[in-house]
Design brief:
- The chain has 70 residues and is mainly beta.
- It has a domain of 33 residues: Complement Module, domain 1.
- Helices cover 7% and strands 24% of the residues.
- The protein has a 3-stranded antiparallel beta sheet with strand order 1-2-3, with no helix packed on it.
Length: 70
């Protein structure tokens, strides 16, 4: 009889700048985190985001595009 295999517990991705380089030779990239825009907007057309002490406005256009402004 074989033992059932178990998956390791899910770990949340580390929060860091995905575009930053760490050394001259990086061998593996961190997995990207993808969040659906419908989840972020929750039925609204405008989302205010606080980043580094400033407020940014993320807005959906009628054509379904996104605009980010300070």
């Amino acid at each position: 009889m074989t033992k059932p295999t178990t998956r390791p517990p899910h770990k949340a991705p580390a929060t860091h700048d995905a575009h930053a380089t760490h050394g001259a030779m990086e061998t593996s990239a961190a997995p990207e985190c993808i969040v659906d825009s419908a989840t972020l907007f929750a039925g609204q057309k405008v989302l205010n985001i606080r980043h580094a002490g400033r407020i940014y406005r993320l807005q959906q256009t009628r054509q379904g595009k996104l605009i980010l402004t300070k």
